[in-house]
Write a structure and sequence with these properties.
It is built from two helices and 14 strands. By secondary structure, it is mainly β. The strands form three sheets. Strands 1, 4, 5, 8, 9 and 10 form a six-stranded antiparallel beta sheet that branches. It has a four-stranded mixed beta sheet with strand order 2-3-7-6, with no helix packed on it. The radius of gyration is 20 Å and the shape is globular. It starts with a strand and ends in a 14-residue tail after the last strand. The relative contact order is 0.24.
Length: 261
């Protein structure tokens, strides 16, 4: 198993509507691992269909084999990306205006027929992750897997710099039992043998994440040696936590659950 430490730095504002509250659209501070997986590997391992037609074009199919653009392709390559944990982040609230589109019928909640709103219906506010926000995540991938240095993410295809460092095998130990993972996880991607005991839920589409989770099962314990600054291969890992536990056997849809829209 080859594990990489990845640092992400936002060079554009990142926006995706985690929560919609009236005219306010809010972005969750965590970055979902499925979005990161597409951003990192769509051009290399995940097919990009020329076009979609019919019912399959109306809904996402992240874990459906019938959907050409599914994440199961990465399972076949032995690749998995964990959700990204915010290290330093800030928000910027943007007010946007959109032009009126008279060809569609507006809903009552949006000021359509029968609505009683007394403010313009063609504007809103987007709470975006601001430029300069920093994230940390981990990626499992075979040797020589190309990991891009730049990706684009979110509704605005924001530019993000990716810095990847290989974690030496000497710092990774296998263990079993109860443990606490400080890193956010996607519960759908946990293996069946792993039990999720306690956790904080991070509500965000398309599948909620968990943080500060207590789990039971097989896991990796990643630790920095005491003299890590003097050891070869560790010089670029100053930002790696002293000890971090990650579940073993993670894969996209590891519990054979199918995401539904």
């Amino acid at each position: 198993m080859i594990l990489y430490l990845c640092h992400l730095t936002l060079h554009d504002n990142v926006f995706f509507a985690s929560r919609e509250m009236g005219t306010l659209y809010e972005t969750e501070k965590y970055l979902h691992n499925w979005a990161l997986s597409y951003a990192l590997f769509e051009s290399t391992y995940i097919p990009r269909p020329y076009r979609l037609e019919g019912a399959i074009a109306q809904r996402p199919g992240y874990l459906e084999p019938d959907n050409e653009q599914n994440l199961l392709h990465l399972n076949q390559q032995g690749i998995y990306v964990f959700p990204a944990q915010p290290l330093q982040w800030s928000y910027q609230v943007i007010t946007f205006n959109v032009s009126q589109a008279f060809y569609h019928q507006k809903s009552r909640q949006s000021g359509g027929e029968g609505g009683d709103l007394n403010y313009p219906i063609s504007y809103g506010r987007a709470k975006e992750l601001a430029v300069g926000s920093k994230y940390r995540t981990y990626t499992i991938a075979p040797a020589k897997t190309p990991i891009p240095r730049w990706i684009r993410l979110g509704k605005w295809a924001a530019k993000i710099r990716v810095e990847t460092t290989l974690i030496p095998e000497s710092g990774i130990q296998q263990a079993s039992g109860e443990y606490i993972s400080e890193h956010p996880l996607n519960p759908i991607d946990l293996p069946q043998a792993t039990q999720l005991l306690l956790y904080n839920r991070i509500v965000m589409p398309p599948a909620s994440l968990v943080s500060q989770a207590k789990l039971s099962g097989d896991y990796w314990e990643i630790s920095k040696p005491d003299e890590w600054t003097e050891l070869p291969g560790w010089s670029g890992l100053k930002d790696l936590p002293q000890t971090i536990c990650l579940p073993r056997g993670v894969a996209y849809g590891a519990n054979n659950l199918v995401a539904t829209p």
